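B., you asked whether I could sanity-check this one before it goes into the benchmark set. Here's the sequence:
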Amino acid sequence: MATQVNSFEELTALVGTHLGYSDYRTVTQEQVNLFADATDDHQWIHVDPERAAAGPFGHTIAHGYFTLSLIPGLCAGLLTMEGVTMGINYGSNKVRFISPVPVGSEIRAGATLASVEEVAGGVHTAMDVTVEIRGSEKPACVAQVLSRLYR
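And here's what the prediction gave me:
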């Protein structure tokens, strides 16, 4: 269930609050292949299931940057805010890919609002996000993602 806020002041009051977890989402080979096509990163550990079966992970794995790119969508349902006309991804701080994401596995994101700062016409937010793999003790990715929200 999403945390609902009605103003930037209410959002600021949530700094330090864990906002919850997204639903799990399955990572498919088709998604990984499309990402490989979009980025020209066709390394066999991502796109060749037969060769990858004999490789170090025993199967194909998602690109780290693919996992990172899923964060906005995974986190979209964690926080809703009235009065926002536009939100943009502003960047990331300290991204780490802790564990490979096997194709076919399920991932979810958990997020904590780290900071909110006023900017012209809106706010700049930082959110600490952990992408988890169902059944794994280690996370797939940890990152602080930055966004701008405008009135």
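One thing to flag: The mean pLDDT is 95. Otherwise nothing jumped out at me.
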